[in-house]
Amino acid sequence: MFKIVSMAVVAACLCAGAGQAAAQAAGEAAYVKECAACHMAFPAQLLPARSWTAVMQGLASHFGENAALDAASTTAIAAYLAAHAADAPHMDRHALRGLAANATPLRITETPAWIREHKGEVSAADFASPKVKTKSNCAACHRDAARGIFGDD
Amino acid sequence: MTNITRPLALAACLGISTLALAATGPAQQKVLDQYSADAKAGGGAFAGFSAARGKALFLSRSATGKPDTPSCTTCHTEDPRKAGQTRAGKAIEPMALSVSPDRYADLAKTEKWFARNCDSVLGRACTPLEKGDFITFMVSQ
Question: Which end of chain A is less crowded, N or C, counting CB atoms within 10 A of the terminal residue's CB?
């Protein structure tokens, strides 16, 4: 009896896991399709989940533009971002270093980790140069930024 | 008689090149037909879409929207045949149908961008007439 129950539990977990994986893949695809239409699909691990929640709740006024999405896409993308955020289980927590527990930065460039990494290395003139244009253009210097790789290129 | 075939016939009569107009596919026509139906349903007189009005809307500057996006041209440039750039630095495919033949073919996608960008630039939703005028202009480019 115990064996059957435990097998059923394992099977249920596997099914739920597969369903979750599919939902995550759909969420990631939606994230890249919708968000990378305007800017790089910033790696989710660069902000805590609370920041992503705030970003996704404020899409109608998104850094000076309306970036509103339909409800289904918004939910799927929000779930993907939360599951891969800096404070999600098994994720690299590097981006949280120095960040106050009650702080909810909306920009990656506002996190102490980002500021520390760029301080003294990249000048304001570098960021303003035509090739870079904006601090949100990670890939101008980090070739593999979209894959979450930020070595010193 | 659709709104597109009429100028097409006129252009053909006048011997004007119909190359750009000929780019309008059935998908774009379906989107325009929807806006035409919406415009009629909204009441008032509807006498077809106008590329000239669409051009004026595209080039106009607004003080009622979000400060960083006073005009369509802020991101799309004043030449619909040229690529634009998002404020975050990404390239935007040209708006002219002759250069970007896949545009205005998907009503949901078209509606998503009108909803966002009319709010960003004008601070309000666009009317069906404005949407139809805008596409009619871009189709003619």
Answer: N
Q: What is the pLDDT of residue B133?
A: 98
**What pTM does this model have?**
0.83
Is A73 domain-assigned?
yes
The tally of domains found in chain A comes to 1
Size of the A and B interface in Cβ pairs below 8 Å: 49
Which among B68, B86, B119 has the least Cβ separation from residue A38? B86
pLDDT, tens digit, 9 for 90 and up, residues B84-141: 999 988 999 999 999 999 999 999 999 999 999 999 999 999 999 999 999 999 999 9
ipTM: 0.81
CB contact under 8 A, A38 and B115: no
Write out the H or E segment, with its range, that includes residue A76. Answer: helix A71-83
Domain span holding position A125: 2-147
Q: Do B116 and A68 touch (CB under 8 A)?
A: yes
For A13-48, what is each residue's pLDDT tens digit?
Answer: 556 677 788 888 899 999 999 999 999 999 999 999
CA-to-CA dists, residue B136 to A68, B120, B129, angstroms: 25, 21, 10
Evaluated on CA atoms B120, B122, B123, B124, the torsion sign reads negative
**Residue A96 CB coordination number (10 Å):** 21
Spatial CB neighbours of B137, under 8 Å, sequence gap ≥ 6 = B51, B52, B53, B54, B55, B57, B58, B80
Which domains are seen in chain B, by residue range?
5-140 (1.10.760.10)
A54–B contact, CB cutoff 8 A:
no
CB contact set of B37 (below 8 Å; sequence gap of 6+): none
